[in-house]
Structure formats: C-alpha cells, structure tokens
Q: What sequence folds into this?
C-alpha cells in the first residue's frame, strides 16, 4: 500500500512531539507501506514568523512573506526526517518546490496546478520515507516560492495522494474525527465514522473546521479516501470517501442498516446579514448590487430576495457575508444608493447559521419540516433559509444558535445514547 | 558601480537591527549603485536550530541538518527584503539555490563550484536590490540543499562579487576592521587600513578570526577587493586588496612612505604538539607516519624534524594539530609504534602559536633576528619554528603567548603611539 500522512502543527509542537510522530511514521513503514508524510510548521511558528514580519514592515510584500513563512515547514520537515533516521530508517525531507508542487503565482493564496513528483517517487523507490513541507509550492511562471494559504497542508497531502496514486490519505490532528455537531455545544455529539465527500464539503462550508474546504474539494474530485484521526491516540477517526453501499445480506451489518438521514449539524457565527430595503423591482438591479460587492472580493454566502410587493414594485434583498467584510460592503452599497434608488440599508451582525447536512435527505421527504418544527419547539425564530440537495441552512439570532443546534441534533436522532443511529459499514 | 555587501548575524540580531541594515542598503542604492546583499541568519538562530536538531537526534543526518539550518538565512533574507520594501525600494530575496550557487555535495562543508547568477542579474536589471541567503547552495548532482560550513557567508559574498563583476565586496561585522594584533592582548593595537590578500591569508591561517580563510583565498584568486568594516558605524575599515605601489612623487604621501615591515601579529592557542621520539632515520618513515594521520582527516599544521643523531640513526619528529584531534592522532600513532619502531610519544597541549606577517619581510633582511631577540628579551622560549615567504611562526608555552605577541608588536613598531608606522596610500 502507498499511504500519505499529514500531521498538523499541534502534532509537532516540540522535539518530543516530533519524536512521537516519527514513531508513528516508522510503524506505518514497518507494516510494509510506502509512506509520504506532509508536515505543518511546529506549533506557533507561523504566527511567530508573521509577528516578526510585522515588526519589520507593517505591510510586508506577499512574495517575501511566502519566502519567510515557508521556512516553518522546512524546519519541521528536516527535524522529522532526523527523528526518523534516529530510529534507524531512511528519510528524506523535501520542500514544496523540491516535491514538485507547482502552483499559481498568487502569493499567500496560491492554488496547486500540477504536481511533478519525480523526486518523491525516486526516494520511495530507494526505500526512503519522504517528508514533504506542507502549505507551500513553487510558482509555475516566476519559480518563486508560494504558499497555499493557512491550513492548506491538508490540501498538499490530498493532492500528493492523488498524484502518487496513494491508497488513502491520513490527516492527523488534535481531535479524533468529525463530529455530528460541535461537542462544546452538544455534549452528546458523536464521532462520525464515515461521511461522503459531498456531505463533508457541505459541513466544511457551513462551519465544521476540521478539514479545509479546498482539501475536501480536491479529495472529492480525485476520489482520494481521507481518514481524519487523532495523532494522540490510535483510535479510528472519520473516513471521508465514497459511501459503501450497505450489503443487507452481511450478518455483521444486521441491525445497523438504518442509514442516518442527517450526518451532522454544523454552525457558524462569523457572518453578518445586510438587508437592502426597497430595491426597485426591475431587471438587472440585483445584478448591479452584487457586481459592486463582488468587485471588492467579498465572499457572499446566502442571498434571499422577497417577493415584490405589487403595489410598490419594490423588493427587499438580504445577503450574508463575513463580519470582517461588513464595513466595506456597507460603504460600497451606500455609494450606490442614489443610482439604484433603494430606500434603506440594514446591518445585523448578531446572527448565526445552523445547517443540517446529509445525503439521506435526498430519499427522505419531510426533512425540512422536521428541522423547522424542531426549531419552533425550541422557540428559535428563522431569519433566512437556503438549501442544497443535501443541506438545509437557516440564519437565526446569535443567542439562539446553541439551542438550535442541540434541537436539530436531537430531532434527527444523532444523540449518542440512541445506539441505532450509527452508519452501516463502519468499524474498520 | 556594482557592490556586494555582506552582513553577519550580529548585524541582524532583531527587527530593529534588520531595519538599520535596510537603511544602510537603501543608502548605498540611492548613491546609484547596483546592490546585492548577502545575509547571515539572525543572531543565535543557527545555534538554536542546531540545539533543536540535537534534541530530536544525537547524530542528525548531514543532508537534513543542511535543510534545517538553511532556514535561518532564508528568514533573515526575507525579513531584510521586507524592511527595504518598507523604505520604498524594490527588493527580492533569493535562497542560495535560487541565486545559482552550485556546490559540491558535501553536506555541512560544501564548496562552491559554479555560480549561475541569472536570477540575480535579472532582478538587478529590473532595478531591484537583491538579498541572497548566505552560507548555502545547491548540490550539482543531487539538487539537494547544502551549506558551506560555519561562517561561510563571507565566501558567498566574495564568490558572488567575482561572478557578478562587482567593483568591491563589503563585509560588515561587529568590529571595525582587521587589527595589528588582538586588542584584548595588545591594547595599543591599531586598525590596519589596507592589507594584501597574501598577508590576510597568512593572518587568517594563523588565528586572526575576522575573515574566513576560504573567503580570503577566493578573494585573492578572483582579485575581489574586500572592505571589512563595522555595521555599527560609518568609519572606514580594512581594505583587503592588491597593494597599491606608493608614488614617492605624490606630496600627499610625503612622510608616509615608510612601508611597515610587519602588517600584524597573529596568535592562536587551539593547537597541541605531538613529538615522536626515536624514529628510525630511513627513507619513507615520515611518509608512513603522516599518511596514517592524514587518513583520519586531521589537519596538521607545523612539522619539524630534527637532524638525525649520527650515532643512533634515529630522529625526532614534532608536529602541531588542533587540540580536538589530539586523542585520535595519539591512538593512530600508538597503533603504529611496533611497525615503525619509534621509542616514545609526547603530547603537549599547553602551547600557543605566535606569527608575524608582512610582505615587507621579503625586502627587509633581519626580520627573523629582530623577532627572536624581542622574544628573548621578553623571556619567551621558542619551541618550534616555521616560516613562509611573508610569515614567521613560533610555538611557545601557552602562558607566554600574550607576552610574546606584545613584544613582537612593539619591536616591529606597530604600537599606536608610533605615528610614523602607518601604511602608505591609506585614508581612502
């Protein structure tokens, strides 16, 4: 088997932690696997380097910032290679550039456009464990060093797994998998043993922080099975992969065939809502508004437009966006008030988004009704609604978020005491 | 003009120091020069990284150690580029590999074998200040990252100056030049305004620590003028270059035409002396001894063989070597005692070496006599003697070193109060 393992910064926080990771890597190699390891910078290294940069320059040039920050993964990669060598195995560390991770030239947020893993496969052929510095690559045009954006070592790992034809990719982190809800809000939340790419994508987009959105997109596109698990235990974590159809004739799966309708409940509280009141109900007005906002690179999430009031020919448009972009969006829209002729602008950052996600809702009607009545029973008022084929999201008041998450979690039978609701085909 | 500047670790110890260096670099650029900067790692970074490596593995593989340590210069290079950009000038940092510094594959102690500075000249053509990470390169065969050995950023700077056809190379450090003797031993020691490559080479080989031996060799071979000066002042330092012949008709140099016979007095106390007593005086015995020692990679310095005592046909051979290699050499020689048939082996690590260096001794007879009588007057006993065309070295007891240095310094008129003894052609 060929395995790619990724260890995050908390797994390599100091020399002792690096030695622990080395043991785990060596154990995998001793099982006879080819092992490629993608590594993040140690603990707070990236933040410390960023602080140092800001002490030298308030606005460091992105090219130079990439040059600086990539030193972090380079150091942890070399140290892990040393720790593995100290346990008697051959190891070779490679920078993103040496590993053939070719990216766009957008410093600080580059995208992988190709992987030429010649040096990796050569080292594997020579029976080496290969350690690749995560989060970094080399720009195709300029040959300058790039970074893929914070947390993107996961993406490096999945992309390498795809390029190397690995059997699976293990993402080691400081939690033991993906949960049905945030355990800090729902103490009865359970680890999800297996989840499909599509569900994981919706969960990640709706606030589940364990896996980076771009990493899940990559895994889905390339069909790379991903195992999210804890580097502090040997327990199984969460498998993200194509869901295996349940075989009802398998006695092992007897009594476990009930597929959960909902895989998990995600939430986030980092968005704000803007409502544009009294927009003339004419073709093209909405386009003008969102073009203006889009021009500022603001990432709009949900959009709702009310039915126009016939007597006034005016409508209200609401949308959500990151709170950090609120001021910019308000300024852009205020500048447009006269030309568009809307009557008012409302801003609300005391909101939260609660989402239920599950492929089961494709085949189970009534999920929306069940979700909304659970919210009603918990006395939660719904502000906005948005849905996909496998997700229902609602915007609620910020103070209602925890209550809404818990109510949905219970309503869909996800609480840990209900033993029947586990996935079929788990336990591997 | 095209200038290469090198700043050592103490010049970039923290964010404030980096900003100070940036100001100096920008000022040079504003004078209209092309500027390439070679930078060391910040302060104690290299030592800290080495400590970290040893906490992970007692014997880190050299390839991985190079991967780790090179992060230090990468960080300081990026930070300096940021600080320069913050002062409104374009700057681009390059790793040794990006700068085209091609080396042998000897990790930890690689040698530069070629420089392909295409990315540097391109950046200079685009009016950028170029910052190159010192001390590092890329192995020609494996494309792995290499280091040139401790203190070798000076060599990087001189090699780049030669390759780029720079007019001169400035080495910024925490002292203001090369002194006629170590000022801690001889308080009246003076800064040497100008010194030839050959003299500097002898000084460096005999214990003057400011410039790396390999850097001086490179500068001499490529005829690169080197200016060693302090990054904490704007005073002139020491120029290492081909000595300009004095023009006696130049009135500016009237009264200063007396060339010093001796440029400086160097010393070191890191060597030990081994004496092999009663070696059979036959052809090939000395060769066998030194072949055996050389096979262990020990760097032998001075060798003295006494005239053989006719009645015994036996001779004594003494040599000096680094104290750190003493035990190895003794073990090797003990193993040879029977086959060679020498009678005894003596080891003395309480010695020191004192050298007087100066091209003036070529044309001035009597330098040896003057040196030895100064030592005799200071009651210093001479153990071994070795000479080159422009150097006389003696081995003395360790406790006599300071007294011997001071006596020679005074005897050759180098003390600061003697105004007449300064170099002709200085003051630039």
A:
């Amino acid at each position: 088997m060929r395995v790619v393992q990724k260890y995050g910064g908390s797994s390599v926080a100091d020399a002792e932690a690096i030695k622990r990771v080395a043991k785990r890597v060596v154990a995998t190699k001793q099982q006879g696997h080819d092992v490629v390891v993608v590594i993040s910078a140690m603990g707070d290294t990236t933040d410390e380097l960023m602080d140092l940069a800001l002490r030298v320059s308030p606005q460091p040039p992105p090219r130079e910032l990439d040059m600086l920050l990539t030193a972090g993964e380079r150091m942890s990669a070399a140290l892990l290679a040393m720790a593995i060598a100290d346990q008697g195995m051959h190891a070779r560390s490679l920078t993103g550039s040496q590993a053939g991770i070719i990216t766009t030239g957008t410093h600080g947020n580059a995208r992988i456009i190709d992987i030429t893993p010649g040096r990796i496969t050569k080292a594997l052929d020579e029976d080496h464990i290969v350690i690749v510095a995560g989060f970094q690559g080399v720009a195709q045009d300029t040959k300058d060093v790039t970074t893929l954006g914070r947390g993107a070592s996961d993406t490096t790992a999945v992309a390498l797994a795809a390029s190397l034809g690995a059997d699976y990719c293990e993402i080691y982190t400081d939690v033991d998998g993906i949960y049905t809800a945030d355990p800090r809000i729902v103490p009865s939340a359970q680890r999800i043993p297996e989840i499909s790419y599509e569900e994981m994508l919706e969960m990640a987009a709706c606030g589940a922080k364990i896996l980076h959105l771009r990493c899940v997109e990559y895994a889905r596109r390339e069909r790379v099975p991903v195992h999210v698990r804890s580097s502090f235990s040997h327990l199984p974590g969460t498998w993200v992969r194509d869901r295996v159809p349940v075989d009802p004739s398998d006695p092992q799966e007897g009594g476990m065939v009930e597929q959960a309708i909902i895989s998990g409940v995600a939430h986030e509280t980092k968005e704000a809502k803007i409502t544009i009141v009294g927009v003339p109900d004419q073709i093209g007005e909405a386009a003008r508004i969102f073009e203006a906002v889009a021009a500022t690179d603001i990432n709009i999430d949900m959009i709702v437009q009310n039915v126009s009031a016939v007597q006034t020919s005016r409508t209200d448009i609401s949308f959500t966006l990151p709170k950090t972009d609120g001021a910019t969006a308000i300024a852009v829209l205020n500048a447009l008030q006269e030309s568009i002729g809307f009557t008012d602008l409302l801003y609300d950052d005391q909101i939260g988004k609660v989402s239920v996600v599950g492929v089961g809702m494709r085949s189970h009607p009534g999920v929306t009704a069940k979700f909304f009545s659970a919210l009603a029973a918990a006395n939660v008022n719904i502000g906005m609604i948005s849905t996909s084929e496998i997700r229902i999201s609602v915007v609620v008041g910020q103070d209602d978020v925890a209550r809404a998450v818990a109510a949905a979690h219970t309503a869909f039978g996800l609480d840990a005491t209900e033993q029947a609701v586990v996935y079929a085909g788990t336990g591997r």
